[in-house]
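Memo to structure team: turn this sequence into structure tokens by end of day. - J.P.
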Amino acid sequence: MSGAVLLSGFEPFGGRSENPSQQVVQALDGVRLADGSRVHGLVLPVDFDAAPRRLLADVERLRTRRVLALGLALGRRTLSVERVALNLCDADEPDNAGACPIDRPVLAGAAAAHFATWPVKASVAALQAAGFDAAPSLSAGSYVCNALFYRLLEATAGRGIEAGFLHLPPAEVLAPARQVEAVRCVLDAACQSRST
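Reply from structure team:
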């Protein structure tokens, strides 16, 4: 396994001009973390099929031991560290490729849900200690974020890879510069959690 930490975010969607997850990934790409590992940033399309393929290809290429995916949660006011990904696609609006699946599994015949292997509680505690409004979350929704998270957990199960998902609130709730600080806090906390 390499020392790279894979950090992914998404391009804008639904007619919006910006996505804070993309901005955070671009800001942290190449940064060295507390344990000396380097962040590899990846901006993904908001596409039910293409996003997981691109992410999983980079997981294999980098041979990484840690993957944190980011996404925008428009209705939330806190940083949400996701605990569960559901085997469900149920879109309120089309993705950027025009797909709008309703009540469809992410992977037919696979498990109903997967739990994050990222240190969720340690991440929340680190965020709160740093003054951020953060909480664990039991629902990554049923849009592309959840589909990506589910596919990531399915593909990395039993491989000793820490995989997680962090939902960011809109920029008007938490300024982009503070979002960058928050994600850096989560990444450093995971490094420290692994070393203890």
